[in-house]
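Give me structure tokens for this 460-residue protein.
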Amino acid sequence: MIRYTLLLLAFLLVTASPTSAHGETAHHLDGTSVNRASTVANRLADPPPQTTELENGVRVHMTPYETDGHATVRLAIRAGSAYESASEAGLADVTARWMARRSASTERGAVRLDVRMTPDAMVFSADVAASAVPSTIKRLRDLADNRDVGVTRGSELDAARNETAARFEQTTSVPSDARQQLREALYGGASYGRPQPAPRQIQSYTPADLESFMARFVAPERTDLYVVGSFRPADVLEAATKHIEPWTATATGPSLRVRTPKATDVVVVDRAGRSEVAIAVGAPVVDPGHTDYAALQVATTLIGGGHASRLAQASLPEATSSPYSLLSAHRRTTYWASVVATRPTQTRPAVQAIRRILRDLRETTPDTMAVRRAQTMLIDRFLMQSSTRDGLTEQMMFLGRHDLNVDYFLTYRERLQAVSPSDVQRVVQTYLSPERLTYVVTGPKRIIDPQIAPVERQMP
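Here you go.
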């Protein structure tokens, strides 16, 4: 079904272009987009993708996709940082890295697993030759099944804690710090707004802490296995049935509790001595399955989705990095954000520029050609991601995370091209209205406060 879906999507993208109200072609997909669509279509293989649920609850997703004789094998366990309690920031990451190290083989030529932590899940991936897919599935089972393995103090735990501490240190750029503070403001420091842990907290986690987290959240019913690329489906099912189906564990932890994001006006986070400020503006919006999501995608691209976006064209004074906008879609919650970094003395002009862009979109219908360019950019980005094994695996995970079926792929172009300039104006008015916005400013407070006070008085 997914093969048929993407083949049809590619056909539609190659053969159709949006038209204006007068029937004239408004904006064509460029040659790169057309070639990429054809590549996606040609590489999808028989038999079509399928999902099978094992008796223990693990879901096995198989997407044949002919490339170079390799496959991406990925295990995703819904035990990400959003599931941590208030005192456990960073514990999911330490646990995932310990699991990967415990299962590591010292044999020459052994498969290397990449570990990635998201707010929603622990993700373990390997890119392997088709012949190595069954043995990689066994390796992932060994990683996940910790029934008879106790966590002990030693080099594996030390390395997991050190790797986690290093990861958080690498994500402290000025714009990312502002986004982190925005998440904390929107979600109240819980679930997707969990504060980043201090190195001391990461180093304090004990074997008992890891064992407790695994007992609560690492279980078959919370697990998905994805195989994308060159492989024999029969071999995958045989390996999954043999190695993963015997895994029996029950998650005892609570279900994900997500606080509804709420606007909190302006939050200033003091970063004394810093030579930059970052302004992150955000608001809760609808999830990908909602009918307004496509219009929000287009609006977000218009606001800050590239060199032709309104933020990029705003000539922000003394900007220290490229401004951007995004939609961050998590399980059961999504938020919109725009981020700008500049010099501390330019805080007020930068905030005013963001407010002016949003006000203009609320009051004036955007130009049709600009909307078409944003639509084409989104479609091309979708095709680019779908043209690689890793990217297509991410697409499959996206469907599962948001409880969407393959119709989401089939109607992707149709939904985006149906968005009109008035739709863009409407969703900005509805979801990005002043009373819904939270402004977070990080930088030297003594310089920021005098500039922010006049702006705050103008807000609802």
